[in-house]
Amino acid sequence: MTFFLFFFSLTARRCHPTGAVIAHFHTSSIVSAKQHYKMLVLGGGTGGIAMSARMKRVVGADNVAVVEPAEMHYYQPIWTLVGAGAKTLASSGRPTASIIPSGVKWVKSAVQEINPQTNTVRTEDGNEISYEYLIVALGLQLHYEKIKGLPEGFEHPKIGSNYSIKTVEKTWKALQDFKEGNAIFTFPNTPVKCAGAPQKIMYLTDAYLRKTGKRDKAKVIYNTSLPVLFGIKKYAETLWDIVKTRDLQVNLRHNLIEVRADKQEAVFENLDKPGETTVFEYEMLHVTPPMGPHFVVKGSPLADEAGWLDVNKDTLQHNKYPNVFGIGDCTNLPTAKTGAAVAAQSAILNRTINKVMKNEKPDKKYDGYTSCPLVTSYNTVVLAEFDYNGQPLETFPLNQAKERRLMYFMKADVMPHLYWHGLLRGFWGGPGPYRKLLHLGMK
Ligand SMILES: Cc1cc2nc3c(=O)[nH]c(=O)nc-3n(C[C@H](O)[C@H](O)[C@H](O)COP(=O)(O)OP(=O)(O)OC[C@H]3O[C@@H](n4cnc5c(N)ncnc54)[C@H](O)[C@@H]3O)c2cc1C
After folding, report:
1. Which of 172, 185, 193 to mutate to test the pocket of ligand 1 (most atoms within 8 A of CB)?
2. Are strands 64-67 and 105-107 parallel, antiparallel or unpaired?
3. Is the pTM of this model over 0.85?
4. Which residue, among 89, 105, 85, has the nearest Cα to 27 in the 3D structure?
5. What is the Cα Rg of the chain in Å?
6. 374-389: per-residue pLDDT in tens?
7. How many helical (H) and strand (E) elements, i.e. helices and strands, does the chain have?
8. pLDDT category, 4, cuts 50, 70, 90?
9. Could you count the other beta carbons within 10 Å of the beta carbon of residue 279?
10. Is 15 a catalytic residue?
11. 425: helix, strand or coil
12. Which residues are paired to 230 by β-bridges?
């Protein structure tokens, strides 16, 4: 209840009575004389905008700049529903200009190089910007090109991918055009963002095919590189029950290596038997691409051995450069990469930076909180929430491993508002305080 009150008070404060969202004014970026900022944020995605809003309150808008090349900002989690025709792509995006906190400088360019020894970054257009404190929020990179036959294969029908703005609507098209045969869903052999998304679209496809009377003509197959269906046992048990009941075939340790889109064939390697490959014909293919660290982070002294931003898992401060901080998908935080994790991290990072600025020791620890609303049909969700240890950390005082309509409502209708009006404005730091309240202080 408190959660909903919080949510509605936020939306009420932030929306115009007509329902239109008021765009903020911000300083334009094209010509810039000032090339030094007290607080420089790299990336204007989920973590970058949330931290800009918070840092504006700490050091003042004039002292904060965000480097972000994209004209549009997208709420990526809703793409799962866009791919299944339950939401429109247009509803997922807003102009970047409207979400940069008012007064904060938007540097409309891409960062190319980070030099933490000189406290500078270089942008694509050749400018050098210096900083006192740096927050890196560059997200991760999608690597469709690591699968033979992609990305050009997306020019053919019957194939889509919810992970990219360019291909998410192709998923919905492939689903609508389905006649008979295999509907195949993949999970790559790399870390991914929102590890539930590759299978959510499978459950939605199954539901759609049942609704349209085509399910008996379809074989629904989930080919995953992982040795498990889902990493957290409590939720995996529910998911295994669902796949059995709905006759969904799961092939573990199957990694997509090639798409022959002209022939509607997908080639998988068996990760447990090197050299062994299997060709699957498909009537519909949903690809989750391999993913990896951002090339700018990877090529900088800020990276760990694998290329991810090397931060302290408790405080989010960089392990070598104390005036550098990280948030979100670009970091090496050992938790699942999600927007929900970014929300919890933003509150901790805010606290850490405040302490560091006062020459005090950071005192609050991030517990690894992350969440994955596993959409299991057009009106049900299993809301997985867990911490660094893979222990469930559930907000609601009910068993969240059950499929629930309430959680679908949360995913489809509440969370987008919480994102635009709470998280991006630096007011939503995850459900921690509400969890405590809803569990009468016991969690
Ligand atoms: C299909 C799908 C489903 C998902 N479902 C969920 C879900 O249900 N729940 C959930 O919590 N999360 C979900 N996520 C994950 C969530 O969207 C991400 O984890 C989150 O957005 C990460 O935030 P970030 O700030 O780290 O990265 P991003 O939000 O990706 O932001 C990175 C930003 O950096 C910018 N950038 C890139 N290169 C440069 C450069 N060189 N210079 C400057 N800027 C640059 C980009 O343009 C972007 O704006 C989903 C994601 C997808 C794709």
Report:
1. 193
2. parallel
3. yes
4. 105
5. 22
6. 999 999 999 999 999 9
7. 12, 21
8. very low
9. 11
10. no
11. coil
12. none
- Going across the sheet that includes 159-160, the strands are 159-160, 284-286, 181-187, 218-224, 249-251
What mean pLDDT do residues 237-254 have? Answer: 98
Domains and CATH numbers, the chain: 2-139+294-438 (3.50.50.60), 142-291 (3.50.50.60)
Does residue 372 carry a catalytic annotation?
A: yes
Give nearest CA residue, ligand 1 atom 6.
Answer: 77
pLDDT at 230: 97
| pLDDT, tens digit (0-9, with 9 covering 90-100), for 89-112 | 999 999 999 999 999 999 999 999
Q: What is the pLDDT of residues 131-165, one digit of tens each?
A: 999 999 999 999 999 999 999 999 999 999 999 99
Mutate which of 29, 68, 81 for ligand 1 pocket (most atoms within 8 A of beta carbon): 68
Write down the residue that tokens 């050098």 correspond to: 128
Which residues lie below 8 Å from residue 52, measured CB to CB, with a gap of 6+?
41, 44, 64, 66, 100, 101, 104, 426
Which is the closest atom of ligand 1 to the Cα of 75? 17
Range 332-357 average pLDDT: 98
Are β-strands 128-136 and 140-142 bridged in parallel, bridged antiparallel, or unpaired?
unpaired
Residue of 67, 266, 372, 381 marked active site: 372
